[in-house]
Design goal:
mainly alpha; Tetracycline Repressor, domain 2
Length: about 180
Amino acid sequence: MDLGKNYMQAVGYHSFNYKMIANQLKIKNASIHHYFPSKEDLALAVIEKDQEDFNNLAKSVNAGSPLAKAELMLGIYTNFFNDGQKLCVISTFESSFNNVSDKIQTAARAYTVFLIKWLTDAFEEGLQSKEFQFKGSAQGMAVMWMASLPGSILVGRMVGAEYFHQIINRLRSSLKGD
């Protein structure tokens, strides 16, 4: 599953195939099909595991400050960028959303809604505590972040790491109303 996720993030869902995993592990495709009969089954498992991994990581900052929660999300995307400029799992499926199954669309949409809510709650908490001073709604800020974070990786891929870091720093300063 980890190799499948890695390939999906690096080359995209439609460019990925079981042969990539089989070649790396020196096994037959049939061995993978035993656990994941279809590519869709693997994709759904990857989305579910990624959300579970995020939940476990988020527990480390649940009692922390709103800024710690925002920094967690920025750190996750910085890690994706530093680890081969890989897309996040959600972006992997968002970029081909109209060309994936209804089940994958539903799972990716639910994960996206979950993350928007998680960020919204963190931003709302930050507004209430005065740690954040941005104008507009917490949900609006969360949606902007959810659009900008994957975009930062794409821009960084195209024109360089300094642009990725510029976007990350701009997101950070957006919480201060800058």
